[in-house]
Fold this protein.
Amino acid sequence: MVWLLAILMILSFMGFFCPILAQEKPTAPIMLEGRTLFYVRESGQYTAEQRANEANRHLGKILDSGDPPAVVGIDSGQEVPVITINNRYFLSVTYNDVPMGKSLQGQALAWKNTLEVAISKAE
């Protein structure tokens, strides 16, 4: 009888907490010319929206500058990969950004490729 009660209590707690644990963290879009390129999530003290706003602002400045074609790179010498545009910081790829089963470097490469295509179309 005690075991049955214990099992019922455990199951009821699991039913209460599982939906909370399963919730996805909020995302915010990285956009160029009204098109969504990819989404970022919160990282440390920065919300997803803060990260996206800063990256989108930076991306807009690069295109508005009229400089030669933008060069997108990955700096892997940091704790996490950093995407650079024209050798300047653009966005860190954090563990929160990476879907299950993908590596940080793999996600950075995917975003780099997406940015290269989008920027070349926009220039």
